[in-house]
Specification:
The complex is a heterodimer of chains A (272) and B (321). With 272 residues, chain A is mainly alpha-helical. Chain A has one domain (31-269). Chain A is built from 12 helices and 1 strand. Chain A has helices at residues 19-31, 35-64, 70-73, 77-101, 103-111, 113-118, 124-159, 165-192, 196-213, 217-222, 227-235, 245-269; one strand at residues 8-9. The longest helix of chain A has 36 residues, at 124-159. In chain B, helix 3 packs across helix 4 (114-127) and helix 5 (143-154) runs parallel beside helix 6 (173-186). Chain B folds into 2 domains: 7-228, Rossmann fold (3-Layer(aba) Sandwich), CATH 3.40.50.300; 233-303, Alpha-Beta Plaits. Chain B contains 11 helices and 16 strands. Chain B has helices at residues 47-55, 76-80, 98-106, 114-127, 143-154, 173-186, 199-205, 223-228, 243-251, 277-289, 306-320, and strands at residues 7-18, 21-27, 30-32, 36-40, 62-67, 70-71, 83-86, 110-112, 161-165, 191-196, 208-213, 216-222, 233-240, 256-264, 267-274, 295-301. Chain B has 321 residues and is α/β, with parallel strands linked by helices. Chain B is 35% helix and 31% strand. The mean pLDDT of chain B is 87. The chains are: A mainly alpha (272), B alpha/beta (321). Chain A binds chain B through residues 1-4, 6-11, 14, 17-18, 21, 24-25, 29, 33, 111-113, 115-116, 118-123, 271-272, and chain B through 52, 55-59, 77-78, 80-81, 83, 85, 87, 89-93, 95, 104-105, 107-113, 116-117, 119-120, 155, 157-160, 189-190.
């Protein structure tokens, strides 16, 4: 068909053809719908609410009962606040990552939208990477950065002065890596499976096994289970035992790369 | 596509097997430029499989093919730059409007200028009659409107080839009519390769037809050739009068191979098969009318409808296997 001469054809790297357009679509799914403010409020409210309760509501209640306050038991407001954010808060954030991202691939596979999208000039790796990148930005901003900023403010208020920022940001960085592990895992499972049960069940299983047994020697070095504990220690400027952080950091990073590669290879071979 | 080559699609022994089940076997297709190519077959014949292979959505297990001279496996992205596709059930992001959906599809192909892209979107919306609903969310669209939006999406990039999988399925007669009209409007710009179950539609708009059964090609060619392509030519004669006298006269002709009569409302309709078409055209009616007692009210060469040909071919093919 003879095209309008005025229209300029898209020029993109052939190996990532249509990444920009798909990334924009994925970003719109987060930011042009109610999704961003619902999730923003939800995770912010959950984490900040939990911290406010633990730091400002529960201690006076115990004090009124004449008992030693929980804050005193945990070595002060900062320690209590950081522990609450990096353990209970991380639990909420990880559940959020898995639940929000489980539908990314399988939802479109099941409705036939993937088939339609791939019938356009799209490189399959661009499809997967666009989902990963757009979701990583959304997860970082809505599930980590926003609740993290709120936690910083609440803990600083409780401590009576600002927390040291750099260690706190380093702790947040570990939390991002922890979330990336579950994001890449969930996306990979979405590529491999066509039912939601394994896509939800496997990441939750890994997370809870990590919570319960992550302190055991082999597990603490081969997965992300120790990252939250490390993040809490780093944010509180507590020295870490030597040889604890780097193996977990490296292993989690490698897992993220491995999950992404596996997703790309499998998706390239999937028939629609 | 090579300038000297007018073929848009060319497949050579294209095959696909799923875990030992042969979904498509040795398919050889040639689709000419600017044709409307109807791809027919019963459910499970392999039509959608073929289309998906051509689009690179699934990979063949044997044979190969070319579109615009490009290899369908190796150069799939380059091919899809020039193709528009309408799946059997078009899917959209329901929270988008028709205009947003077309803007998204256009962005796969065009980077600017913005005004020209918007003008193209408007033109496409008008072509499929959705310009008055352009800014409504798709979730409120009827089946027919979704189908028309699917066609709009498929041709927003000025495709050289449109692949339409059951474009009029699940539509009411008005919706079907609208879709066929759009296809006819597009035929001067592009080649259309489409599958359908609705044989009336094929007969109305297609110029070339392929019939597929159980993954194998049963027949392929220009529609007129297929409609006339029975073993012998048949003439239809409707008469009022003595059936016996006509029978006697037909028996006198050596090139009449078979004759059958069907009496209805005082008239008899004869189906007369002949082996010599030229002789029949020149002498059959004259020979019958030589008997003055015979009154012929209608005489024509029988035109088969596609449904008849389709049923014969599919049943014949099923019996042979």
């Amino acid at each position: 068909m003879s095209a309008n001469a005025e229209l300029k054809r898209v020029k993109e790297w052939a190996w990532m053809r249509s990444f920009a357009n798909l990334y924009q679509k994925e970003s719109q799914a987060w930011w042009s719908t109610k999704r961003w403010w619902i999730n923003g409020l939800l995770w912010l409210g959950l984490v900040a609410g939990m911290l406010v309760a633990m730091l400002f509501i529960v201690p006076p209640f115990f004090a009124a009962l004449g008992q030693t306050t929980m804050v005193a038991d945990n070595g002060g407001m900062v320690k209590m606040g950081l522990h609450t954010f990096y353990t209970v808060g991380t639990l909420a954030i990880t559940i959020g990552v898995i639940v929000l991202c489980q539908d990314l691939i399988i939802g479109e596979k099941q409705t036939g939208l993937t088939e339609y999208l791939l019938a356009n000039p799209v490189q399959r790796k661009a499809y997967v990477l666009a989902k990963l990148c757009a979701s990583l930005v959304a997860v970082f901003l809505l599930l980590v950065a926003l609740p993290g900023a709120a936690a910083y403010v609440v803990i600083s208020l409780g401590a009576g002065g600002p927390l040291p920022l750099l260690p706190y940001l380093a702790g947040i960085g570990l939390l991002v890596l922890h979330s990336l592990f579950y994001l890449t895992l969930t996306i990979m499972l979405g590529v491999f499976f066509s039912s939601r049960s394994p896509i939800l069940g496997i990441p939750f299983g890994i997370f809870f096994i990590g919570m319960l047994f992550g302190f055991l020697k082999p597990l603490m070095y081969i997965g992300p289970s120790m990252l939250t504990g490390c993040a809490e220690a780093i944010a509180g400027s507590v020295p870490l035992p030597p040889g604890l952080l780097w193996p977990a950091l490296l292993a989690t990073g490698l897992w993220c790369v491995a999950f992404t590669c596996a997703a790309l290879i499998k998706f390239e071979r999937t028939e629609f | 596509m090579d300038a000297s080559n007018s073929l848009v699609i060319e497949t050579h022994n294209l095959s696909k097997a799923y875990k030992g089940v042969q979904a498509l076997k040795d398919l050889n297709l040639k689709v000419e430029q600017h044709s409307i190519f109807g791809f027919l077959g019963p459910n499970g014949a392999g039509k959608t499989t073929t289309m998906k292979i051509l689009l690179g959505l699934i990979k063949p297990t044997g044979g190969g093919g070319k579109i615009f001279g490009y290899d369908i496996v190796r150069d799939s992205v380059a091919i899809r730059e020039r193709i528009g596709y309408l799946p059997q059930q078009p899917r959209f992001l329901d929270y988008w409007t028709a205009r947003e959906s077309l803007r998204f599809t256009a962005s796969f192909f065009f980077s600017g200028p913005k005004a020209a892209i918007e003008a193209r979107i408007q033109e496409t919306l008008a072509l499929v009659g959705l310009d008055d609903k352009a800014d409504r969310p798709i979730k409120g669209f009827s089946g027919g409107e979704r189908q028309r939006l699917g066609i709009a999406q498929a041709q927003i990039n000025y495709p050289d080839l449109l692949i339409l999988d059951e474009p009029a399925a699940a539509l009411d007669p008005l919706g079907r009519h609208a879709v066929l009209e759009v296809m006819e409007r597009l035929r001067k710009h592009t080649t259309i390769f489409y599958s359908t179950h609705i044989l009336d539609d094929v007969q109305r708009v297609s110029d070339t037809v392929a019939i597929l059964n159980r993954g194998q090609l049963v027949t392929c060619g220009p529609i007129d050739q297929i409609l006339n392509g029975k073993d012998s030519t048949v003439f239809t004669i409707t008469e009022k009068g003595s059936t016996r006298r006509i029978e006697e006269r037909l028996q006198q002709l050596s090139w009449v191979t078979q004759a059958s009569a069907d009496r209805h409302n005082g008239a008899t309709t004869w189906q007369v098969g002949v082996s010599d078409e030229a002789a029949a055209e020149a002498h059959l009616l004259r020979h019958i009318l030589a008997d003055e007692a015979v009154v012929v009210t209608e005489f024509s060469r029988k035109k088969y409808d596609l449904e008849e040909v389709f049923m014969d071919l599919i049943q014949g093919d099923n019996n042979e296997r």
